[in-house]
Amino acid sequence: MSVFEGKHILLGVTGSIAAYKAADIASKLTQAGAEVDVVLTEHARRFITEITFRAITRRPVLIDLFDEPEERQIAHIHLAKRADVLLIAPATANILAKLAYGIADDLLTTLALATQAKLVIAPAMNTVMWQHPAIQENVRILEERGARFVYPVEGMLACGDVGAGKLADTPTILQAVEEVLNPPLRGVRVLVTAGPTEEPIDAVRHISNPSSGKMGYAIAEEAVRQGAEVTLVTGPTLLEPPAGAKTVCVRTAEQMLDACLQMYDQADVVIATAAVSDYRPAEVWQGKRKKGEQEWTIRLVPNPDILRTLGARKGKHILVGFAAETEELLQNAQTKLREKNLDLIVANDVSQEGSGFRTDTNRVTLLWADGSQQALPLMSKREVARHLLEAIRQKLLAR
Questions:
Q1: Residue 302's closest CA among 366, 253, 355?
Q2: Which residue among 48, 76, 200, 355 is buried most deeply as judged by most CB within 10 Å?
């Protein structure tokens, strides 16, 4: 039976030239057994009419906030309560801003505030608009609240420009809706490490690195969204703990290792993104060492290797590591993959623009133990997380 059978889908259509593609989405959902209620914005009606959707869905099409097709039912409340998914496709820049900041000035935006249904958004717009910092900030806000985005794809746009902005194809959008209805990692136990570690020198100084934790947090958030039971072991960051994940805060490499060992046997998948300090001071000064004129020599000793320790007792776990390199990226990553007994390693050159520490984007290559690899273009860390989790899901299915 189709996952859409008997589900109630609200399909919001906004004022984009891609609005005509929403008819195909509505048709495919209806054919799969879903009950589809279409909500058109006034601008969407400039591109496609309600007659089309009424014929496809055999349901009333709603436009005005005060439309009440069912007697004694307030439409935006009734529909909001019944909905399993609110899908907005295509979504314009305007609707993204309204959703991000809680503006409710028409039926669609009012429904979005009134419903507890899963939210899936498929934007479509000019490339420059899509890349504008304001749009990307709105996307970030909505993703943090749990919205699932189906990012626009590259191609020739209606305006003649070439770039990212085209509405994703219907199968991709339907797959996203299917995944929020039937999360692909439901029941999978995922342990993620993230952020830097700090190794104290004295009471106020420490050795660390510039890791922000954004990559690990994005993976943890996406894994929660896909139904996994997530534990996040994190070093010090400025990020909010992901909703739905069990978060364990540590400071040093030894503390991170201890936390991972305590939870390792309960995990199915371990994804180690943390930038762990390789060394720590041999002696820690008690209190604050006062500044003086003499040199201060600090002797460093190696920290325990968390990945190597976990790899030595891997068992049936899927163990994933990260390799942040500045030279000989693939060679160094393959060596780490082999020596630490990993199933998969994610290699990225942190010297490249947009893929270093503290960025919102990354450019990585996935390398599997069987020798296969997949190079991903520059994309948001949330998108990298989705590609990585899909690769892991395929590995789980193969088992």
A1: 253
A2: 76
Cis status of the peptide bond prior to 196, with omega within 30 of 0: no
Q: Which residues are catalytic?
A: 159
> How many domains, the chain?
2
Nearest Cα to Cα of residue 236 among 202, 209, 264: 209
Contacts of 99-105 with C-beta under 8 Å, sequence gap 24+, read: 99/138, 99/142, 99/147, 100/137, 100/138, 100/141, 100/142
Structural contact between residues 344 and 395, judged by C-beta atoms closer than 8 angstroms: yes
CB–CB of 74/68 below 8 Å? yes
- Tell me the C-alpha distance between 183 and 178, whole Å: 8
Domain identity same for 197 and 306:
yes
DSSP string, 273-304: --B--SEEESS--SSPPPP-SS-----EEEPP
Task: Round to whole Å and give the CA distance between 205 and 289.
Answer: 9
Same domain flag for 154 and 210: no
- Indicate whether 21 pLDDT > 90: yes
State the pLDDT at residue 293. Answer: 83
E strand map for 51-116? 85-91
Query: Is the pLDDT score of 384 beyond 90?
Result: yes
Q: Is 15 strand, coil or helix?
A: coil
